[in-house]
Amino acid sequence: MDKKAMEKIRKDLLKSKKQIEEDLAAFTKKDQHEKDEHRTQFPDYGSKSDENVQEVGEYSTNLVTEKILEKTLRDIEETLNRIEKGAYGTCKYCGKEIDEERLMARPVSSACVKCKNELQKSV
Length: 123
Prior knowledge:
Structural class: mainly alpha
Order of helices and strands: HEEHHH
Helix content: 55-70%
Shape: elongated
Oligomer: single chain
Strand content: under 5%
Low-confidence stretches: none
């Protein structure tokens, strides 16, 4: 992979990581006991019935959002580690180089298209 393209991907990943961390901070607190885990905060709009319904609805939505953002953040961090170690762009299943087009479209890819398709067929 061309160094200029890899540097662009690295910068984009760092930018995405920062944005996700900011998004998570808006409705979660870092868990003191679990590294890189967040805990969704329960909103408090009041004690009226309609406020309670709104609180539960928002909390439920935020729980799902938290899990998705944490997974994305882990993927980004793993990708940044692969870049740092010089292992970025290599399929973790077959060891062949992942097409640059795939990496530009989905920078956190760790599998080539062929291996990814085979994995999806087996599920």
